[in-house]
């Protein structure tokens, strides 16, 4: 637990001092919103279209963070230090997933109000949206930490992470869009199948947290 | 007892020929007409491919537990053949969709869409595997991928199914499923396809094993050919004995549960 706290603290401190991921993610998300505005030729969005734009944007911005997640470990020898340290290696997985979760939450604090400002007529659906985003972030964080480790150790780091992540995240996208769609309906938030989609998101999160926990040790062996 | 590769191959060909002879000559025509017969190819291919992905995940778990490269080879070959079968599933699915709904691809057909997503994920196995140079690490990371993707398969089917209306014909659905004779033909086709999958897996494993042995022998030959001419006479018998021992090693029984 202390190892987890130490690695997470280190990552957050590095991010706060260098600001390498978060501003890039926020700018990227803004640019995607503007692209959608013209690509779809719509100035306001609702229902399925709004859900699709929001979920896709968060997904793409998350990929930026995922590809940078282990840069310091691979470039500065952090992996070797973890191997040498008398700590449970899964702490690295948990800390990286937690860091990614926090980055995504910080991104959403900026991107979701901006999305509402750009495209939504009413902000009534934003509060229940928090529940969906919390679960989406857990899924993104678990798969992101796992795939980022694999990609970092390969010769095609920047290529592999999005290539594997995108198909792997499709069930998450389906469930997230299904849950968000009625929340952003034009006539006020609805809750059609809301619980069912939250359950699918929760199941996805549990499965990939468990897989990550079970296999992460093998990724750090040398 | 493990059947020999030859027996397995003959059994696979015989079952498939019997199965598809039954499809064309004895199975009754469905209300969908002649095009429904593609079902006897499409569904067994899909079942074999999906089971193959799960088998790969099981081999991958064994590989991580034992660190035995044999299990990694089996996981790799299982995924490889399931991806090839997957191409067949998507092609036959597209033909069926065209005949049934007039389009080569229909999005509101959850089983085929799920299969496409699973297929897409497993296609990334190759760039992943070949982007890692260190052999041991390559094997370990490929196993981690195979386990992750194996866990993904049922989740993906669940999510896609919940998202779409059910218009895909259910093979064993509540509407009664297949009539007896069609079901029997289907099961023979499924058995034939499964035998084909296992035979092809074993062929590829045997080919990989022979290639590795050949490489080892060639390296040994090159290494020992370097000494001056007089030494050759004494080396020749050694080659013979080495060949024999490798040959014997190749024929030695495999661990139980092998593909």
Characteristics:
heterodimer, A: about 220 residues, mainly alpha, globular, B: about 260 residues, 8 helices, disordered C terminus
Task: Please summarize what this structure is.
Chain A is mostly helical.
Task: Tell me what you see in this structure.
The complex is a heterodimer of chains A (222) and B (259). Chain A has 222 residues and is mainly α. Chain A has one domain. The radius of gyration of chain A is 18 Å and the shape is globular. Chain B contains eight helices and no strands. In chain B, α1 runs antiparallel to α7. The two termini of chain B are 13 Å apart.
Query: How many distinct domains of chain A?
Result: 1
Query: Which geometry of chain B do the CA atoms define?
Result: globular
Flag low-confidence runs of chain A: none
Question: What structural class do you assign from the helix and strand content of chain B?
Answer: mainly alpha
Write the layout of secondary structure elements.
The complex is a heterodimer of chains A (222) and B (259).
Chain A: H1 2-18, H2 22-39, H3 47-68, H4 71-76, H5 78-84, H6 90-119, H7 126-152, H8 157-168, H9 170-183, H10 194-220
Helix pairs in contact in A: 1-6, 2-3, 2-6, 3-6, 3-7, 3-9, 6-7, 7-8, 7-9, 7-10, 9-10
Chain B: H1 5-25, H2 39-66, H3 69-101, H4 110-123, H5 125-130, H6 135-163, H7 180-225, H8 230-251
Helix pairs in contact in B: 1-7, 2-3, 2-6, 2-7, 3-4, 3-6, 3-7, 4-6, 7-8
